[in-house]
Amino acid sequence: MRSRRTDWHTADIIAALRKKGTSLSAVSRQAGLSSTTLANALYRPWPKGEWLIAHALGVKPEEIWPSRYYDPQTNTLLDRKKLMRGTLYKSQALSSDESQYQPDSYLT
């Protein structure tokens, strides 16, 4: 029997950002985007936005949006980084035992 994974509710994502002392608009501005741009990742797939939000929370994007990162047939992790324009993060193997992503100087 497969365990069913559900995406975080948008209010939970926003609350988690507030607990970290930031907001969705602040993370968006820090990445050089409009203050409302990252809200797109809450409602539709957008790998770059998902990675920015996940990095701000200190978790992997697939923990927040498992429906976007796991193949529903095989339950295997999909590599969505190749869908991003440019490189936001150093290339790393996507394994389930990684606890943090390492940002490039782009985010620091």
TrEMBL record:
InterPro entries: Lambda_DNA-bd_dom_sf, Ner_HTH_dom
Family the UniProt entry places it in: Belongs to the ner transcriptional regulatory family.
Transmembrane regions: none
Protein's name in the database: Ner-like regulatory protein
Classification lineage: Bacteria, Pseudomonadati, Pseudomonadota, Gammaproteobacteria, Enterobacterales
Matching Pfam families: HTH_35 (PF13693)
Keywords: DNA-binding, Transcription, Transcription regulation
Organism: Dickeya aquatica
GO molecular-function terms, A-Z: DNA binding
Domain of life: Bacteria
Residue ranges constituting the Ner winged helix-turn-helix DNA-binding domain according to the UniProt record: 7-81
